[in-house]
Amino acid sequence: MLPSPGMVAAEYPLSRACATGIQEHRRKLCSILDGSEDLLVAILGPCSIHDVEGALQYAEKLKALSQRVSSKIFIIMRVYFEKPRTTLGWKGLIYDPDINGEYQIEKGILVARKLMLQIAQMGLPIATELLDPVSSSFFVEAVTWAGIGARTSESPTHRQLASGLPCPVGFKNSTDGNLQPALDALLSSRACHSFIGVMKNGHIGLFRTKGNPYAHIVLRGGGGKTNYGPEDIALTRERLLKAGLNDSPIIVDCSHGNSKRDYRNQRLAFESILAQRLAGERAVKGLMLESYLKEGKQPLLENRKPEPDISITDACISWEETESLILDAYERL
Hints:
By secondary structure, the protein is an alpha/beta fold. The chain is about 35% helix and about 15% strand.
């Protein structure tokens, strides 16, 4: 039997100072998304967290970089613990924290929450994907930005969850590049809902939400095509307008379909978005990069612990390239 979200929160409590900082991060992000502040949002970090020490080392570097560029770029760290799978594969730190197929989920929940709090205490805003509506109740209070992935944007359960979250939520277009599921998700998650969910005490309860006005689309490419170019952004704005979502911001994921599954192409998407911003495009409020300490990815080998500083899921750009891209963007902005 798993402990309740309240029991886990009692074991690893969120301090008042940390909670205040998270609230300020959410406020700032909302003000960027609604155009009140003209900063570029940059959501940076590994495809998934597999090693706590490696994640903390990356977070320390990212915090230092964030302080250097904060007047123009609002950096949020990707702290992803759950991996959606089309078929099979490692499902993430929460489900299999020891990466050995034993699925010590209770341990994974505790490790994930503790790590999130450590990163939040550094003063870094946190982004994560909400794959399982139940597991999200263990750590969502520490999250500044939540993502709903391409495989779950059509899910009514995830749309209902997003409608009641205390932070902005990004819905990705589908894996084939279709925008419609994400547009439908925005309309749904901005509306009120009533649904059944898990309360802090672990009991099943009834939730009533007011809708999330900061739900937005995340362009990730798909179907063998990218969707970050000027024509793609113009088309997305047009589709948003037709759906009655003309005030909705856009974030571009430079990885996945937009990199054509080659991490080295993330730079192309990044530079395109930066050029569009410099040309006056303000519908695009931010971007995402899959980035870690070392570039590439490593295979999972039986009876061998993975290296802590290189991804075990999607390949990432290196820290050095990440820092170079962000500092160059800062200078040009």
